From TrEMBL:
Transmembrane regions: 6-24
Family: Belongs to the FAM3 family.
Subcellular location: Secreted
Protein name: ILEI/PANDER domain-containing protein
Amino acid sequence: MRPRDIIQLVMVLTAILVMVYIATNPPHNAWKRAQKIRDIFGSVGSKKDQLMARESTAAILYKCGLPKKCPVNQFAFLIRSGAANVIGPKICFDGQVIMSSVKNNIGSGLNIALINVATGKVEKIGDFNMYSGDVKELLKFMKDIKPGTVVLVASYDEPATKMTDELRAMFVSLGSSMIKSVGFRDGWVFAGAVGIKQKTPFERHIKNDKAKNVYDGWPEMLEMGGCIPRRL
């Protein structure tokens, strides 16, 4: 048999096989199989469809990143302590970041924001070095706080070396129940107010414990958020 005859025979056999496959696998069966595969693995869809799907399943966050919306008569807030001496703290109130590394208005020690609870406006902010700073500056800052003021505090690096009994008593008067235990390189976040009649529920404290520290020489970062009433 000549080579040309062999090629023609192969072509004929191939055509026959294709016809047999089509006859035994009609298009609607192939479509069903494709549909089944798509049902199992999901349809890719357009980029717009994918984006809409992600948006519909994404968690909805409210002011200051809270998972729930605060009532009309309350303010949302979030306080995050610093992480070791590397990542700075963050204080957010009513959806506005008041203090953070990005705003370049934080420092090692205690970072404090004073809020007029009636208007929700920031009255004053300050950062106080509690390791090598002048504690008199913090004492004056605290003594000047007016009634009707919410006090938000975030620690960073070292909050307690210069902490005096007088300062601790001032924080107690603002509703703190943990300040007496805050020590060297502890983490502490706090939200209190002038004239509060009971201990604030918004306070967290974590000890600097070598056996439990997340960072080398510091405990893990603290984060606390919630809703503060407009009337104390």
